[in-house]
Amino acid sequence: MFKGIGFSYKLVWVNSKSYLFFMAFIKVITGLIPVTLIYLTQKLINEVVGLFSKESSYSSVFFLFSLQIGIILFSFFLQYLSIINEKKVTIVIGKIINISIFEKINQISFINFEKPATYNKIQRLSSNQSCVLNVVEESSSLIRDLITVSSILFFLIAQHWAFILILFVGILPLFFIEMSYGNKRFELAKFLTPFGRLESYIAGLLNNRDSLKEIKLFGTGKYLISKWEENYQLFANNELSLLKKQGIFTFIAQFLLITTYALSGILVLLLISSGKLLVGSFVSVLQAVQNIQESLSNISRNIAKIYESSLFIEEYREFMEIEEMNDGHHGSVINHIEAIQIRDLAFTYPDELKPAIQNISIDIPLGKKIAIIGENGSGKTTLTKCISGLYEVSTGMISINGMDMNHINKNSFHKKISVLFQDYEKYNFTVKENIGFGNINNIENAEEIQLAAIRTGIHSKVEKFPKQYETILGRLFDGGLELSGGQWQKLALSRSLFRETDLIILDEPTSSLDPISEIEILQQLFKQTPDKSMIFITHRLGTAYLADEILVMKNGEIIERGSHSDLLSYRGQYYEMYTSQSQLYEKEGLVL
Ligand SMILES: Nc1ncnc2c1ncn2[C@@H]1O[C@H](COP(=O)(O)OP(=O)(O)OP(=O)(O)O)[C@@H](O)[C@H]1O
Questions:
Q1: Complex confidence, ipTM
Q2: Cα–Cα distance, 438 to 368 (Å, whole number)
Q3: How many CB atoms lie within 10 A of CB 98?
Q4: Cβ atoms within 10 Å of 167's Cβ, excluding its own
Q5: Is the entire prediction scored with pTM above 0.90?
Q6: CA count, 13 A, side-chain hemisphere, 73
Q7: Cα of 121 to ligand 1 centre, how many Å?
Q8: Rounded to 5 degrees, what are φ and ψ at 25?
Q9: Distance from the alpha carbon of residue 149 to the mean position of ligand 1, in angstroms
């Protein structure tokens, strides 16, 4: 808890000192206001009573009354300033925490995103980013309440010592209940995160145009809604049951509070009847008891909240400490990829027993074009993710220009490769951005962007758009134009080609294209890039024959390799796949 407080104050101090000073000022003043009002009430009542015996004057009553109203108005004004001040700092800290989470996500190894635990953590952090501010706000309110309590305690001791005893016996149970439920609330939030994620995933499916078309046609809407409802109910039931349990204990604790209030009232009546206190004290002591009880229960509630928020802060700190991707800042810089060698590579996904790929050895000298083919799940994509450095390899070795990939400067390597994945991104931004993201430093180079679009044939379509390369794509935002699946793929391919690289990795780059466009684009690409290495995954063998070497994968291993004619003469798996596909193509009257 103290770590959490220290962390939060440091963050606010570094980013918004003025907020802290102003907040401290407001809390001290508002902490002293209750005792001032109690004192004024006591004085006022005694003065009013004195009016009957002519011991006091109307002017002093009026003065005290105005002073009381003035102080109340002043406290309202302070509340207003405090809300504005808090909002300002919420904006600053919210921005800092969010950016730090985004940056961390950007830095940590991609393998973390193969684990649901990472998504759970990110979801919890994103929805609890206000914790830092809560800790600062709650701990400063704690100080305000401590000032209020101690100042009122002085006032009560001045009346009679027994009040203090009554008060503490009444407040202790509430304190322990709040503490224990702070912990339980955090554990519940942790337990419920996966259910919350499932809930928002289903809500996303029901809101998203792409998923909605399947939902409508398959008629799965009702099923998904009931799945959402089931989850929602589970979420709500758990929260409700914790609230109910806490409610019962809080009720008992509050019963004790009322008892102490009643006991204080009886004590003050006894003291008045014995002439030890004046009538004004009856109202002011009860007001003081009420105030002190309120402040003490605020204190216990705030400590519980600080405790709860500190657990989230601890989680944030842990997240920030996740080891970042080994980008080999100190490793050798790769300015040009001369050759890639892969030796006995194996890779196993987290929580899996069997490796997804194994015994992989490949040589990729500069300019070599390699096609990878194989049935679904044979490990083709996993292999390209390892070669592109997304997954850190522990078994076997990938070497770049003779250097172990784990010891090179990854950033410099990434600058020299370009990857188009099967599930490429369709950015609902402009055409320019969709292509320009391939080389963000060159995004303003309209000529090269256009060249990349010409190479995949998408330029002829973009030309006809009203705003051409400034046209927004997709249907998410106003004015967006939609492309066909194949056009999106051509655009994504242009993005990969826009990047000035030595190695291009394409995972089924032409799966949505018609066979004519597919052959044309790939033939052009091969011709235009004699000095670039290329690895492309394909299920259509009509393009694989263009490669210098074809690798056939099965169950995570390379089972055949060679040129198109070598593989045909082996009469193995490739031969079988090729002949069955060519028969199909011939039937359709197409060429393979
Ligand atoms: N994130 C993951 N976590 C665990 N296992 C995975 C993960 N991604 C893929 N796999 C498993 O690894 C194996 C290889 O998958 P991979 O995606 O590399 O196959 P692929 O040859 O590219 O398939 P496809 O032709 O269908 O694209 C499969 O058995 C798959 O179930």
A1: 0.97
A2: 22
A3: 13
A4: 24
A5: no
A6: 6
A7: 24
A8: -60, -50
A9: 63
